[in-house]
Design a protein that fits this description.
mainly alpha
Length: 128
């Protein structure tokens, strides 16, 4: 009888799927934020094209809501990346696939989060 625990690759792959799920969710939130932010521009330009003045002018809150959603998506990706990195570091070598480098997944997710923050800064400071 051996005292070494058996490897269970399902733990590692579940962690990978969770990271991918959070990345997909973050991308969707960033995309929605961009859409909401730019939709306000569309609503401002619509009366110029049609000549119809809206009955009640509303504040342009869509821009702020959109930028907030982009920041929220970037934050979600960043937190998921950090949590995934910490969890993978706790796994014993026997539970990780051979030749696995956790740096690639963390680098890619980190870059995606950084690009999302850059998009938020662009939306916030470049006039539409």
């Amino acid at each position: 009888m051996s005292d070494t625990p058996k490897s269970d690759p399902r733990v590692f792959f579940a962690s990978e799927r969770t990271l991918l799920g959070w990345i997909r969710t973050g991308i969707a939130i960033v995309g929605l934020g961009f859409l909401v932010s730019r939709f306000g521009l569309f609503l401002r330009l619509l009366p110029m094209q049609t000549g119809v003045v809206p009955a009640s002018p509303t504040g342009d809150y869509s821009h702020y809501i959109g930028v907030s959603l982009v920041v929220l998506g970037a934050l979600g990706i960043a937190v998921a990346t950090v949590q995934h990195g910490r969890f993978i570091a706790t796994l014993p070598a026997v539970d990780r696939p051979a030749e696995y480098s956790r740096g690639w997944a963390l680098w890619l997710a980190g870059m995606l989060s950084l690009v999302s923050v850059m998009l938020a800064l662009y939306l916030a400071f470049v006039p539409a």
